Amino acid sequence: MLFKFLKYVSPTNYFNLKRNNNTIVFPDWDALPKNIQAQIKLNKAYSNIEISKLDAGYQAVQKGYIGTTKTINFKVQIPIEDEYRFIRTYFNKLWVYYTLLWRLITLHNPFKELQAFLKTKNVRQVNVFKEYISYFEWNNFKGELLKQQPKVSVIIPTLNRYAYLKDVLYDLEKQDYTNFEVIVVDQSEPFNESFYKQFKLSLNIIHQKEKALWLARNTAIKISNAEFLLLFDDDSRVAPDWIANHLKCIDFFNAEISSGTSISVVGAKVPESYRYFKVSEQLDTGNVLIKRQVFKTIGLFDRQFEKQRMGDGEFGLRAFLAGFLNISNPTAERLHLKVATGGLRQMGSWDGFRPKRWFAPRPIPSVVYLFRTYFGNTLTRYALLKAVPPSLISYKYKGNVKMMLLGYMLSVLLFPLVLFQVLKSWKLATIKLKRGAKIEIL
Q1: What is the pTM of this model?
Q2: For residue 186, with 0-12 CB atoms within 10 Å meaning exposed, 13-18 middle and 19 or more buried, which class applies?
Q3: Distance from C-alpha of 25 to C-alpha of 67, rounded to nearest angstrom
Q4: Which tens digits make up the pLDDT trace of 187-223?
Q5: Looking at the domain 144-345, which fold is it?
């Protein structure tokens, strides 16, 4: 982990882990091109220059550096004061106090903690996303991939959403890239085969009787013979250049995955990093183009996530650890309607941390299964301590600091219930861990 205090505020981020080749994602400052260094402010307030360079590597990734520069190999112990300086610089004040609280609760020396905390009290938070690295060559880039016109399979699982799927398919009819097919795995009841006759698309309709999202996606991937798989949701809207911009991104950055940004009509505000290209720390199967080679190398989606959440997060993490380059692509945007009926909503969950019933597990067991599989029990506990209390408020207030504070107060008042929910989720995740992953090889 880059700075140790990240375990409190961002415990289960992809970038906290070493990849299978024993490297991390953060570049070595000294090896960065001069034009990239010029766009990053080297913070010399740290106790030594090597820690300042470590901070600069963090900045580079957050600002959108994408390159093949050698990565950091840092083994120096970071003083507590520098850890607080880092957290104060890049995170909301709420999380600074939160970090101090957990340092004190976990019996770290209170005098040293308070001293370091107070010494850094004048450090101002910096918006690391405000001034990002631009790729000016993008607009005039004429790559070979679009000229070659490779076949793309657009894969759409659907369940009782014909009204929304209609607009999805009309958007696909308007695409300016034409060498694609659409594979729809329809799990609706009743199944309406005649619905698809109105569209002028190369359609492959699969009627799947079992309501299973990851089975649907895996089935479509196996059926496709295309070089590129474009995974899409049935409640989304996209522009005519959507497919073309996904392919252009793969070509421009020599990447294996293009993660289009998703603008949701409800929930947390749109992250500022969605404005520019950067190495992605997530994978959203509602809008992502993936080379077939990725599936051949690491397998299909883990069916341990069936009827639950985070199956795409697990796949993205698996791809990251395997060394594949996943780009957050702002030019392949979708509007995610997040409709309240059909789809995974109908299977029992709106959100990974918000169960529908009082005595249901919180979060959904697949979330804990993912965290424990890749990050271990300790970091999973930190993740739950951070994410469970805010989940007591409505999804529409997600990301609202005041409402998050209310969530923490509610978690104290409802502690016995919340503890029961979390322990139930932990127990069910343990069962999943004992069973092991259900990953089929392509």
Answers
A1: 0.94
A2: buried
A3: 10
A4: 999 999 999 999 999 999 999 999 999 999 999 999 9
A5: Spore Coat Polysaccharide Biosynthesis Protein SpsA; Chain A (3.90.550)
